[in-house]
Specification:
289 residues; mainly alpha; MetI-like fold; two-stranded antiparallel ribbon; 12 helices; 2 strands; 73% helix
Length: 289
């Protein structure tokens, strides 16, 4: 049998121009760099919607039915300068923060109870199946009877609108945590609240954040709707009451200015507050692409 001989193959070096393979890296043009910015794209979309609004209202030519975008901006600027919209907006935000905070606290408490005990899980599932389909606005008559005409009634319906979507998404996130993560927590001796805080919450935070977004959207819509019905207390009210007052006075441009304020606050919360929370948590942790 012949001995195995290691034969070294000769090396060949060929000089090939890169251009023969085409462009390997192409620099982006100025337009491509601008268009790759999500804020610029969204701004262009908003500008297009504003232009369509202006053209349609000009053709319709009925300010009582659909005022021009320019008239809405003028009314919005006027009530910002005189402080009316700022005062009404702050009134709504204060009530919203009270109801939203209380709803988050109750949702966290119920979910922690559900994830650590079997009876707690049954309790949460029963309550959510009963009350989650119930619209918060349907509780307004009871809220009026129990808490009277004021902030207490508003906070009550806000808690209902926040509690169930946050609890459902948080519980779903907890249940989706892998068994490996759970065993790691058990091996470290974590139980009860420490187990929830150090293992379940970080692992399930994408679901929790989604529930917080949904809860915020439900709460904001419920608050404006509730203020349209009984949102006045001691001669003051929020944005919903501002819209209702101007509707009665047929100041439709002011009505649209109030709706415009509601939209601006919603965009700010969604694209600034929640966006920054997402970037500093789930994106930073590599839990979302």
């Amino acid at each position: 049998m012949a001995d195995n001989v290691l034969v070294q193959r000769p090396e060949f070096v060929r000089d090939v121009e890169i251009s023969a393979y085409g462009v390997v890296e192409k620099p982006l043009t100025a337009w491509e760099k601008i268009f790759n910015n999500a804020a610029v794209r969204k701004g262009l979309l908003l500008a297009m919607l504003a232009a369509v609004w202006q053209v349609y209202s000009t053709v319709l030519d009925n300010p009582l039915l659909f005022p021009k975008f320019s008239d809405t901006i003028a009314a919005f600027s006027e009530h910002i300068m005189n402080g009316v919209l700022l005062q009404r907006g702050w009134f709504s935000i204060k009530v919203l923060l009270m109801g939203y905070g209380a709803g988050l606290f109750l949702a966290g408490t119920l979910t922690a109870f559900a994830i650590t005990t079997r009876i707690g899980n049954d309790f949460l599932e029963t309550l959510t199946s009963m009350f989650n389909p119930l619209p918060a606005i349907a509780l307004l008559p009871l809220a009026l009877i129990w808490f009277g005409l004021g902030n207490g009634s508003l906070v009550f319906v806000l808690i209902h609108s926040v509690l169930w979507p946050v609890a459902l998404n948080t519980h779903s996130g907890f249940m989706s945590v892998s068994q490996t993560m759970r065993m790691v927590g058990r091996n470290y001796g974590l139980t009860g609240p420490r187990y929830v805080a150090k293992i379940l919450i970080p692992a399930a935070f994408p679901n929790i954040l989604t529930g917080m977004k949904i809860g915020w959207a439900f709460a904001w819509r419920t608050l404006i709707a509730a203020e349209l019905v009984f949102g006045v207390s001691s001669g003051s009210g929020g944005l919903g009451w501002f819209i209702y007052e101007n509707k009665n006075q047929l100041e439709i441009a002011n009505v649209f200015a109030g709706l415009f304020s509601v939209i601006i606050i919603g965009l700010f919360v969604e694209n600034f507050i929640f966006r920054n929370i997402e970037l500093k948590t789930v994106r930073k942790w590599g839990m979302q692409s």
